[in-house]
Write a structure and sequence with these properties.
Layout lengths: L8 E4 L15 H6 L1 H7 L3 E4 L3 E2 L11 E5 L6 H13 L3 E6 L9 H7 L12 E2 L15 E6 L2 E4 L27 H20 L3 E4 L13 H17 L4 E4 L4 H4 L6 E3 L28 H16 L4 E5 L14 H13 L3 E5 L58 H5 L4 H15 L8 E6 L7 E7 L2 E8 L5 E4 L4 E7 L2 E4 L2 E4 L3 E7 L12
Parallel strand pairs: 1-2, 1-13, 2-5, 5-9, 9-10, 10-11, 11-12, 12-13
Antiparallel strand pairs: 3-4, 6-8, 7-8, 14-15, 15-16, 16-21, 17-20, 18-21, 19-20
Bound molecules: alpha-D-glucopyranose and calcium ion (CA).
Length: 525
């Protein structure tokens, strides 16, 4: 997919971005109002967390109407306007597709609950036993009783998320249908209609929630892969530019199954994010990711070898499910992380607020977020009330704003007072100007594979060759460097001297390699 090569995504949690009508909840007009900020920073793609009608028990990952924007965010007309306004600025927008389950309030599910047969009876997975709890020896055999006289339903994630029936890889109970069952094909077709609806309206693709879990009891995910290969084919025939991003966390499986991008790293809700580190406030990477950066980068090489040119690993700064990077890293350390994220081969995703180093706020929760609430707090725009997020009474906000004196804001960042934001802006401009740094550019590790720092690698595209060196640790680091280099961007203290690259803690350098010819020159900020 061509537009993905230089795409850099900005993930927006709609309820926490900007409230324009004073009800304490972010809305679509708020996102539209900030498109210039987003594109001015250097992002050219947006992933929106779900904005559909919902009883909000898992903050909208429990949908009661796939065809309507929830009233608290605006209308479908606002959605259409958002797509159009984004496109005017060269921004692609992808939506969250929650394909594995609905909310119990969804009319599809209420119909399915009824005793008399109807067209939705087998849209969900029902055991005829009224209090069947599932076989606990199976990891995802999770049934809920008490909703229908008809039996117990299989839940997908939380109990309030009845699983849509796309069939089973291995059938074990009499009520289970095999993947190839015509009913399961019909159920898939229903969701394809949902996809078509939003694509026709102007969205550019989807981030697919729990994409690896559509087919049940599918240990090698062969049927799940089949499901997606078929889906990609059908969607692509009608919408050749539409992009599919999976929440699967296994690119070696998801890309061959038809996804253009899959997140690389871990799905763990707490602090297992690839860029974070337990040692709060210190430099990340030193011994995280079960073996540190050396192991992480080797795994990335393997992943790339497995997926070839068919798709890209999605490299993320954070997301609505994990604790923010700032919880583990200083602003300076975050800048090195961002330098890595934005110069590696793959598709970067930056979580709203990470560009200014928003903090994780412990102990806050809304709509089933639990500990994830701390990463979902309102965007911090300026020093006015509620940090410019909303004019509502602070008690009425979706989640509280960061009340600390040093809470970073966009206003200060734009005034040049936030070194992390300045670094991200420079990195985004550099990535835009150099094809070698983009998703498809070649990648060759020169130093650091064994876990020793600094990490140094070459990125190239045609004749253009760039050299990147990073020290994400809290100690100085050096490596041999016999290249003839022209500096493009240096963060912290990084010097090339006497055949060596010498880096102070938390620094990086990006250089043009002698003899290479850049496709275009870096724009002066
Ligand atoms: C995904 C979402 C998460 C949600 C879950 C259930 O992991 O990212 O926020 O709770 O799926 O839909
Ligand atoms: Ca609002």
């Amino acid at each position: 997919m061509k537009w993905l090569n230089d795409a850099v995504f900005y993930e927006i949690y709609p309820q926490s971005f900007l409230d324009t009508n004073g009800d304490g909840i972010g809305d679509i007009p708020g996102i539209i109002a900030r498109l210039d900020y987003i594109s001015g920073t250097g992002f050219n793609a947006i992933w929106l967390n779900p904005w559909f009608e919902s009883p909000f028990r898992d903050a909208e990952y429990d949908i009661s109407d796939f065809y309507s924007v929830a009233k608290r965010y605006g209308t479908n007309e606002d959605a259409r306007r958002l797509f159009a306004e984004a496109h005017k600025r060269g921004i692609h927008v992808i939506l969250d597709l929650v394909i594995c389950h609905t909310a119990p309030e969804h009319p599809w599910f209420t119909a399915s609950c009824r005793l008399e047969r109807n067209e939705r009876s087998d849209l969900f997975i029902w055991s005829p036993m009224l209090s069947y709890r599932g076989d606990r020896t199976e990891p995802d055999d999770y049934y809920i009783s008490g909703w229908s006289p008809k039996g117990s339903y299989k839940a997908s994630f939380f109990a309030v998320q009845p699983a849509v029936n796309y069939g089973f890889g291995k059938v074990r109970h009499p009520w289970e249908m095999p993947y190839s069952h015509p009913q399961c094909r019909k159920n898939r077709a229903l969701m394809l209609e949902v996809m078509r609806f939003w694509l026709r309206m102007g969205c550019d693709g989807f981030r697919v929630d729990m994409a690896g879990s559509v087919v049940k009891r599918d240990p090698e995910q062969k049927y799940t892969q089949k499901f997606w290969r078929e889906t990609r084919k059908e969607i692509e025939a009608e919408f050749p530019e539409a992009v599919l991003v999976s929440e699967w966390f296994n690119p070696a499986r998801s890309i061959p199954a038809g996804f253009h991008v899959d997140f690389y790293g871990s799905s763990s809700f707490r602090n297992d994010n690839w860029m974070t580190h337990e040692n709060k406030g210190k430099i990340p990477f030193t011994d995280h990711y079960a073996g540190g950066l050396g192991k992480w980068i080797q795994d990335l090489e393997k992943t790339r070898a497995a997926i070839g040119k068919k798709g890209f690993p999605g490299l993320f700064s954070g997301n609505h499910d994990v604790w923010r990077m700032r919880h583990y890293s200083s602003l300076q350390a975050m800048a090195v992380n961002m330098a890595l994220l934005l110069t590696l081969p793959g598709c970067p995703f930056i979580y709203y607020g990470d560009e200014i180093g928003m903090k994780y706020l412990p102990g806050v929760s809304a709509e089933g977020s639990d500990s994830r609430g701390g990463s979902r707090t309102p965007m911090q725009w300026n020093r006015t009330g509620n940090l410019g997020f909303s004019t509502a009474d602070p008690q009425k906000l979706y989640l509280p704003v960061d009340s600390s004196d040093d809470a970073p804001t966009v206003e200060e960042a734009l005034a040049g007072k936030n070194p992390l934001y300045t670094a991200i802006k420079q990195l985004l401009a550099l990535r835009k100007a150099h094809k070698a740094l983009q998703a498809q550019g070649e990648f060759r590790i020169e130093h650091g594979r064994a876990g020793r720092f600094p990490l140094a690698y070459e990125r190239s595209c045609g004749k253009e060759r760039l050299w990147v060196v990073l020290n994400p640790t809290d100690r100085p680091a050096e490596c041999v460097c016999k290249h003839d280099l022209k500096p493009l961007l240096v963060g912290g203290e990084c010097r090339i001297h006497n055949g060596k690259a010498l880096l102070a803690p938390a620094s990086y350098g990006i250089y043009l390699l002698e003899g290479s010819s850049p496709k275009n020159k870096i724009r002066k900020e």
